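ok so dumb question maybe but i'm new to this and my supervisor (M.) told me to 'just get the structure for DUF2252 domain-containing protein' and walked off. so i did the thing. is this what she meant?? sequence i used:
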Amino acid sequence: MLYIVNNGGVIKMTDTNRADTQAATSLHYDLSKININKSVHELIDAGKKVRDTVPFEKLGTFIPVKRNVVQGISHVEQKMISDLMPLRHKRLAASAFSFFRGTDELMAFDLSKQTSTNIPVVISGDAHLGNFGFYASPERKLLFDLNDFDESAIGSWDWDIRRLLVSIVLQGEQLGLDEDQIDSIMKSAVETYQQILSECFEEHSAMERYYFSTEVESFLQSEDSGSSLPKVWRKIRDSAEERNSDKVVKKFTTLDARGHLVFKENAPRTVHVSESRFNEISEHLKNYTRSVSPDVTVLLSQFHISDIVRHSVGVGSFGTRCYLVLLTAIDGSHLVLQIKEALQTRRFRGFDVTTPFSQSKPDNGERIVTCQQILQRASDPLLGFYHNNKSGRSYYVRQFWDMKESINLDKLDEDDFQTYAKICGLLLARGHAQSPTAAVVHGYVGTKKKLVLALMNWANEYAKQVHKDYKEFTDSLDSDETEE
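this is what came out, is it supposed to look like this??
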């Protein structure tokens, strides 16, 4: 497979053996567009040449896009659970940042219309500040990394860094920071991204990039030991270590009239499923066990299903089909699995978000699991997926909670917020560096200040667009209430 730079600055695979590649990958998420047979130095040089066709100034120019915000959101919600829409709207309306978090489809469409290098890597697709957090490694160590992958795919690297920067602007405003303070924080995040990519491809081998650690204690010591943020992290660490299946059972379950352990109801957010849905999910979990490793399959064979509820979480995903499954082992211990609907990467009426790397055939649960395992240093060993052929819906499965925790961004002061943003930039670069094509990205971004200023300019302009969209959305809610 060969990647070339065309006149538009796009990295593409030549047609040689394309049919063979597609045939070999037709049953899996196709990663061929990040596989290359060039040396790192050749890829870095190719990235530098992209600057000629996509100069930094052009990358940093925001191109306004016409679209109907309310119509777009409504179209996405057509596939969601109607009873949960009032709560979803309340969450979206909480703040401009909450709205931004929950409407990634708007930005995805807008990004598809912006100037881009189109250098492909595996991206998060939704790399805002709130989508980084703590979770447990298989060895029960506390890690900090990207932790949301619903929109993950092969895409252009700049989609992630732009979304991160816009979230810095919006959260910075929410913290009461002024423009200069926010610009300084964005600048440090982009410079960190550049620095880490440089270290990854100038100083570290492929194996070293693969084995980098995000274990919290060593991570803090090596990356930002002089900051005040570790105090916050240590407090979160103590809380996260208590968030396990035993804690879930205590918080979310009760004994029914027969003395059986069952989930508590909290309608409409948490409700028990029908008997037919219970049987359907039970059957599909058998298919899920085929997507995990043999040791996990043996582990799960010791459990039976005790109860299932529909339990909605998040902001953007609130209203999708999500479930909690209570499992009981032969020794009486418990495990709680979370099943989340894996939607297609966001598209809505009249706004087709098509990129040079779009794929239509792969199972979306498999897409999410595949990209998560690439971007994270270590992933939940119970992470897997299944497809419901009858409904055509895809799902992914993981442990619920399992030391999952996040930092309350509203509680950070300026210094802590800057450190947090830098660490997110660092992790984003390390995640991207798992794709060999990230060497091309390194060649393009280098350590140039012009790139930093260009991306900051774009983010500031796009944040204004978010505020306009937020107002249009909240005005529509007010209008609906008036009509009622």
